[in-house]
Write a structure and sequence with these properties.
248 residues, mainly alpha, 8 helices, 4 strands, 6% strand, globular
Length: 248
């Protein structure tokens, strides 16, 4: 069977129905924070959530346009950080308040306390900025915004762990989770020599194409997330996802 033909069919099918196309199993499991609990076999139907079987996360998305000054073409980084911090706390509380479809899903949700903080309207921010969606500048901005959100979320999770204790399965996954956190920080700095245990190195934030204020906030968020995590652990095995906006 011609590989090109199969690949084109997979790509077309994924585009046509807006469902997940291919999943890169090696990469997914190398970024898995809790491999001692089992491997990641698949995503949820919309493909934003990848974790252990029979787990779930509650979603919340920040509208990036609410933080964007269209006259100055600037993102309110401080306001965005505050919102990420606040909603990480809200979603952590929601673990206790949620209803689950089965006893197993409920138990694993309490064991791992996975959250689903995300953002929406990135495309609008880029368009009103006059930046092409498929460009190095867009990838620099998108990478930095994502790093800020995720770094702040894990920093907040570590602060929660200092008070409430880490998630119950943290100790058995501590070494793996800290390795993944170190890799996230390396990506924020685009430090390709600093990655641990990866078959394929990710594309880090290219400082040449990223606004300085966003890059500075992204690297600081991950410095804090790693430093506090090493000290206190994390309250949540996972904190962020980027869900298809239409599902929210």
């Amino acid at each position: 069977v011609p590989a090109r033909e199969v690949w084109n069919q997979i790509a077309y099918a994924a585009w046509r129905c807006a469902d997940p196309g291919t999943q890169y199993d090696t990469t997914i499991n190398e970024w898995h924070t809790c491999p001692q609990g089992g491997r990641i076999n698949a995503s949820n139907p919309c493909s934003e959530y990848m974790f252990l079987d029979n787990t779930a996360c509650n979603l919340a998305s920040a509208n990036l346009m609410k933080f964007f000054d269209t006259e100055k073409n600037l993102l309110d980084v401080e306001g965005f950080e505050y919102t990420c911090r606040l909603w990480t706390t809200v979603l952590e509380i929601s673990v206790l308040m949620a209803q689950f479809p089965s006893k197993e899903v409920a138990q694993l949700s309490y064991d791992y306390r996975t959250l689903g903080l995300g953002f929406a309207n990135l495309g609008t921010v880029l368009m009103v900025s006059g930046i092409a969606y498929d460009s190095e500048e867009a990838r620099g901005i998108a990478g930095a915004i994502t790093a800020i959100m995720t770094g702040i979320a894990y920093k907040t999770s570590a602060e929660l762990a200092a008070v409430q204790g880490p998630f119950s399965k943290y100790e058995e996954n501590k070494e793996d989770m800290l390795r993944v956190m170190h890799n996230h920080r390396a990506a924020a700095y685009d430090a390709s020599d600093a990655y641990e245990g990866l078959s394929v190195k990710p594309v880090g934030i290219n400082a040449k194409y990223c606004p300085e204020d966003l890059l500075r906030a992204a690297t600081k968020a991950w410095d804090d997330a790693v430093q506090l995590g090493e000290k206190y652990g994390y309250r949540n095995a996972q904190t962020t996802v980027i869900a298809p906006t239409g599902t929210i």
